[in-house]
Design a protein that fits this description.
Elements: H1 6-17, H2 23-30, H3 34-46, E1 50-53, E2 58-61, H4 63-79
Antiparallel strand pairs: 1-2
Helix pairs in contact: 1-2, 1-3
């Protein structure tokens, strides 16, 4: 079994956050630890793919992030 790369981790986090969720739940769904999640979430937020809703205290995927997931799934479909 090979290790997951950064891109796969970012995609897993975005997929896990599609339902608007707390960090610990996203970490569990993405099968990563909280420390790694924090680093990745920071990068995803810096790139406008993920945001934190202060009111609800939940992470959510931005429209830009949703577009990225669609493109990623299309690429996987083409390679399958």
């Amino acid at each position: 079994m090979s290790r997951r790369g950064k891109i796969e981790l970012y995609i897993d986090i975005l997929e896990a956050a599609q339902d608007r969720d707390r960090a610990t739940h996203i970490a569990n769904k993405a099968k990563t630890n909280y420390k790694q999640l924090q680093k990745s979430v920071e990068k995803l937020m810096d790139r406008g793919l993920l945001r934190f809703n202060e009111k609800s205290k939940l992470y959510e995927v931005t429209e830009h992030g949703k577009s990225l997931l669609k493109v990623w799934n299309k690429i996987l479909e083409m390679l399958d």
